């Protein structure tokens, strides 16, 4: 079984034409060559096609016997679930006995703790292990940024500031891709939430300004909206804050807003 054959099988099961399957992601002619095994599709475009049609990455790759790609697929599913605040999906992955990578297991459990606001309930020895194993800084690529976004709550505030300054300052030194923008914007949003909780308005403003300066891109629209929400909180603009929450709920993002801080009534 090849990637192209599995794509064709998936498309057939979905009842889609080749044009419908790849629309807006790759050209129909290129996609046709992928299905016929004449061209190779990169992982980013493959994930986009599968996500567009709500196809589980785990189910798609389960037919392949190579364990290494399977772990990469599970990692991608975990990141997608974390980004979408999909707690149930993360809990399913946590119980998946095919997650054999120890570091990935720690990451998934930390993701769950972050989304449930229960990082402080993680045993101290496990926090130390997570902190040691998860974030290993070499350069601020997408993987390192996601690890920072996930493990941020394990650091004290001063340590966190140093990490954030380093990550933010590297922005103009890397190749900007959609995946990089999504990762760095998640770092900024998570840092913004922590700063607001700690009532450090100066650092809140720094995070908001960083997000506002990110290029316009549909990939990070949510981050820009959330930054506007926190700005409304800082400005004590209850009407604007409630309007943003209403918009997000109407757009199907209830998972995001249920843990948002709110202005007191």
Automatic annotation (TrEMBL):
GO terms, molecular function: DNA binding
A Pfam family that the UniProt record links to this protein: HTH_3
InterPro entries xref list: Cro/C1-type_HTH, HTH-type_regulator_Rgg, Lambda_DNA-bd_dom_sf, TPR-like_helical_dom_sf
Stored PROSITE patterns: HTH_CROC1
Location of the HTH cro/C1-type domain: 7-60
UniProt-recorded name of the protein: Transcriptional regulator
Species for this entry: Lactobacillus hamsteri DSM 5661 = JCM 6256
């Amino acid at each position: 079984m090849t990637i192209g054959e599995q794509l064709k099988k998936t498309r057939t099961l979905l009842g889609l034409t080749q044009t419908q399957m790849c629309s807006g992601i790759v050209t129909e002619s290129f996609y046709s060559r992928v299905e016929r095994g004449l061209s190779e599709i990169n992982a980013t475009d493959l994930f986009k096609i599968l996500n567009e049609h709500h196809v589980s990455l785990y189910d798609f790759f389960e037919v392949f016997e190579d364990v290494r790609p399977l772990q990469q697929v599970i990692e991608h599913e975990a990141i997608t679930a974390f980004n979408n605040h999909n707690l149930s999906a993360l809990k399913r992955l946590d119980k998946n006995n095919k997650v054999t990578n120890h570091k990935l297991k720690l990451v998934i459990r930390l993701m769950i703790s972050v989304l449930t606001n229960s990082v402080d309930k993680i045993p101290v020895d496990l926090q130390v292990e997570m902190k040691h194993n998860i974030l290993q800084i070499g350069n601020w690529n997408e993987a390192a940024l996601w690890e920072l976004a996930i493990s941020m709550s394990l650091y004290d505030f001063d340590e966190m500031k140093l990490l954030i300054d380093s990550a933010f300052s590297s922005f103009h030194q890397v190749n900007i891709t959609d995946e990089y923008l999504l990762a760095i914007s998640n770092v900024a949003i998570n840092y913004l939430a922590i700063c607001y909780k700690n009532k450090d308005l100066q650092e809140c403003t720094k995070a908001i300004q960083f997000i506002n300066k990110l290029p316009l891109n549909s990939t990070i629209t949510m981050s820009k909206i959330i930054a506007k929400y926190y700005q409304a909180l800082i400005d004590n603009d209850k009407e604007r804050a409630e309007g943003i929450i209403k918009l997000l709920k109407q757009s199907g993002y209830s998972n995001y807003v249920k843990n948002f801080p709110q202005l007191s009534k």
